[in-house]
Amino acid sequence: MLDVFNSFYGLIPVTIAQSLIVSFVVLGVMLPFRILNFPDLTSEGAFPLGGCVCGTLIAAGVNPFLAVFIALLCGFAAGCTTAFIHLRFKINTLLAGILVMTMLYSINLRIMGRTNIPLFTYDTTFTLLAGPAANFAWVKIAIVGVLVALVVAAMLYFFMSEKGTSMRAVGASPDMAEAQGINVSTATIIGVGVASALSATGGSIMVQTQGFADVNMGFGILINGLAALIIGEAITGRQTILRQILAPIVGSLVYYQLISFCLTLGLAPADLKFATGAFVLLMLALPNLRKSGGGNQMREKIRE
């Protein structure tokens, strides 16, 4: 048991760094799903898109900060494309996201020209900011943590503003929002675009931490993001906009610690999805079980 604890403790810095990076994707999943009521799968393609664009530009000698910004813009374009396909051609949101995600795979291959690009010998945003100390996990945690905090603060400020409230109104009731003079199409396109931009940002940061860009790096990231979002919402709740924004961050941290703990217990990687599903099911079932228990107590009191 002591060996298991030591192994788990040793993985904590790595899992925290990874969870903070993936929290960008979870924010990208949460924004259309919860705020805009627009179930979207584009994040699965936007995440590797950001990584492939950033990796290709860094390998070409482009400044890493500029590479991240260009990757962000490419992700924004992918999200806008999904929203436009849905609005213009009346295609289901999930199907529109699948179409864009599928096409992005070929686009990513064209961008890189091959399936992967090593980045071990190139400067990254971490080496430019921290120099030789960039290899330490806690340094990466500090840098990514500051960036996550800035994104959370910006989202909170926006959604508390008039334009942000308008976007939330679009998700709550598009017909009522349109009746109030809000441009539903513009709000939807921008919202989904920003969500994919966040996912692409996560991909651009991930390739710099892992040292390579790979066209298949986004496989399964959407499932992980949804699991982290559900876990985070079960912990923080969704009663306020602050809690809704914090849920992806908290959920990512808890989810990857759960994965790390399962690995240290000797669970096979093939069984991780089952363990994740069971944990999410438990988190979703607990509120209903509590309500059922309360109902039974009420019925007993009535009988008395």
Q: Rg from C-alpha positions? A: 21 Å
- Counting DSSP H or I runs of 4 or more residues, the number of helices is 12
- Based on DSSP secondary structure assignment, what is the total number of beta strands? 2
What coarse outline follows from CA principal-axis ratios? Answer: globular
Tell me the distance between the termini. 49 Å
User: Order of strands side by side in the largest beta sheet?
Assistant: 1-2
Instruction: Report the average pLDDT across residues.
Output: 89
Can you describe what's shown?
The protein is an all-alpha fold and 304 residues long. Helices cover 80% and strands 2% of the residues. It is built from twelve helices and two strands; from the N terminus they run H-H-H-H-E-H-H-H-H-H-E-H-H-H. It has helices at residues 2-35, 43-59, 64-89, 93-112, 125-130, 137-160, 162-172, 174-179, 184-210, 221-236, 241-264, 272-303; strands at residues 116-118, 212-214. The protein has a two-stranded antiparallel sheet. The chain is globular and about 60 Å long.
